Structure formats: C-alpha cells, structure tokens
C-alpha cells in the first residue's frame, strides 16, 4: 500500500553480507545504512560485481543479511519467518528485473492479474486494474497477446505493470532497461519514472546508465561494500 509522501518505506540499518568461497570470505556489504521515503526515486549506480543485486535482494526480502535490520514500512522484516516474508513481499514490494520474466503461457493481461489473484483480489478487480495499468503504458491493444508476440520494450512495460499491480509501497528495479536498445530504454524508463511518480511509492533503481540516474532524485553507489551518496 502506497504511503504518505515522506514516510520511510525502506530502512536498512548496519546491514552486512558475506559469502565464503573455499578459504576466502568475500565481504560484499559492510554496515550498510540507508533510508528511502515514499515519493522518492533513488538511483543505485555501481559496477557489476560490487553487490548491487545482493543489496536489492536483501531489501526485497529475497535474501537475509548476516547482521543488521531491514525495515519495510516501519516493520522489522529481515528476519521474519519465510511465510511472513512472502506476505510482506506480496503486499509491500514490487520487483522489476533486467529480463522481464513474464510467464510465456499467459497473456499480458493475465501476467498482471496473477499477483493480484495471489493476493486474493477478485478476478473482476484484478482484470480492471491490469487493463488500467497496461493502458497507462500504451498497451491497450496488446492485452490479449502472449509475451512471445510482444517486442522487448512491450514485454518490459508489462513487467513494470505487473510490479505495480498490488500497489506496493516500495519498488526495487535491477537494471530495468539494461536489455533494451538505447532508444527503447529511454522511452520505457520515462514511462517507468512517470508511473512511479504518479503512484507516490518509493523506488530504488539500479542502473549503469549515468544519464538515467541523473533523472532520479538522488544517486547512491557501492564502494568496497559501503554505500555512499554522490
């Protein structure tokens, strides 16, 4: 559920994450502290292999930190039981990835309806919201098309609509336009920013593109496992 502007939707406190490979311990995240408010769009810019995806997975409750806390809308959620973490993800968090991960046997409309149906919305309400969201992305004429019949840009638009389907308070995106050509990426990114701003949610968007990052409210980067604001 979208929060009032300025309300903290994501707070990381002293989050650390390491991986062990043989005799070596790789410290990917070191005492990360970060806050994101409703209505705010933050760019996460850092080279590949520096821990961006790990940070997003921890923020999105897909991974657990070794230490520290993860608060979603004021609730300490990082160490909840798996079922409770799943419930928070379903109601509070939307995800967009570099590759759309649409279900190929379902239409564009059905892909956006599915997370709503899982959240126990009626089929009628889920269909109406799916149609409205896809309409916002100019896909009114593609509602009944399977992903394989859509262009790359159209597929990513459907993926963004799906991420927004349950009206999350937090959107996490990992290189959401990284698989598109420059022109299409620019158009889709504009549409993503417009949708996020009109929804009033908080968004953390990882990107390699400095031009795209410059369009957001602020920019942070990972350096040697720590988060710094640019």
From TrEMBL:
<dbReference type="Pfam" id="PF00005">
    <property type="entry name" value="ABC_tran"/>
</dbReference>
<feature type="domain" description="ABC transporter">
    <location>
        <begin position="10"/>
        <end position="230"/>
    </location>
</feature>
<keyword id="KW-0547">Nucleotide-binding</keyword>
<dbReference type="InterPro" id="IPR003439">
    <property type="entry name" value="ABC_transporter-like_ATP-bd"/>
</dbReference>
<dbReference type="InterPro" id="IPR017871">
    <property type="entry name" value="ABC_transporter-like_CS"/>
</dbReference>
<keyword id="KW-0813">Transport</keyword>
<dbReference type="InterPro" id="IPR027417">
    <property type="entry name" value="P-loop_NTPase"/>
</dbReference>
<dbReference type="InterPro" id="IPR017911">
    <property type="entry name" value="MacB-like_ATP-bd"/>
</dbReference>
<keyword id="KW-0067">ATP-binding</keyword>
<dbReference type="InterPro" id="IPR015854">
    <property type="entry name" value="ABC_transpr_LolD-like"/>
</dbReference>
<comment type="similarity">
    <text>Belongs to the ABC transporter superfamily.</text>
</comment>
<protein>
    <submittedName>
        <fullName>ATP-binding cassette domain-containing protein</fullName>
    </submittedName>
</protein>
<dbReference type="InterPro" id="IPR003593">
    <property type="entry name" value="AAA+_ATPase"/>
</dbReference>
<dbReference type="GO" id="GO:0005524">
    <property type="term" value="F:ATP binding"/>
</dbReference>
